[in-house]
What does this fold into?
Amino acid sequence: EIVLTQSPGTLSLSPGERATLSCRASQSVSSNSLAWYQQKPGQAPRLLIYGASNRAAGSPDRFSGSGSGTDFTLTISRLEPEDFAVYHCQQYGGSPPYAFGQGTKLDIK
Amino acid sequence: EVQLVESGGGLVQPGGSLRLSCAASGFTFSSCAMHWVRQAPGQGLEYVSSISTDGGVTFYANSVKGRFTVSRDNSKSMLYLQMGSLRSDDMAVYYCARDSPGGGWTYLDYWGQGTLVTVSS
It folds into this structure.
C-alpha cells in the first residue's frame, strides 16, 4: 500500500509569493496517477490537478503540477488571497484503496 | 450541474450503527464509480470505500473492512454507506465523491458537502 508524505506541514507565505508544495510516495505511482485537491475551512475538497500535471476545469493557470515516479510538486506561481487553504495529494493508480497525504496548510505570513 | 448531497450523519453510541446516503444529480450516476472519504476533526482526508458503476465491485480501507458496507441504487441515483460497530475513531465528516467519468478508477472530480458522524456515549 502506497503511503504519501506531504511537506511541509505548514507553509507561511505572503500574497504574490510563489508556493511549492511536495508530495512524496513510498513507491512509484503508476501512470503518474496523482491528484491535488484544495480545501478551504468548512468546505469540501475541490479537485485542482489530476494526472500529476493536468489542471482541472476551473483551476486557475497559476496552479501547476509536476513530477513523476515518487516525487510530485504543486506550484502556485503567485499567491492570491483565496489560495490560502489546505492542499491534499492523492494517488489513484491501479484500483482502490486510494491513499491521501496528510495535507499541507498554506497560511498567510 | 453535478450535485452530491450527503445525509444520515448524527450522534451514535459506540457499537452502534448508522446509514449514510448520498443523493446524486446532474450527471449519469450509473456511469461513475463512487467513493466515500472521511475527515476526522482537524485531520487529513482518509479513504473509506469505493463501489463500481454497477455495484459489483467494492473496496474498503482496512480500518472499516467488515464493519462498513457500501452500496448503490442506480435507479434512484443514490449511494449508501452502512456503518456498524462504530468506534470513536470513526468520528468524522464523511464525504461522498464521484470518480471521473470513464469507467475506471481515477481521481475524484466532484465532492459532496459532507455529513458529520459523531460517536459518543
Observations:
- The first strand of chain A starts at residue 4 and ends at 7.
- The CA atoms of residues 20 and 75 of chain A lie 5 Å apart.
- Chain A has no helices and eleven strands.
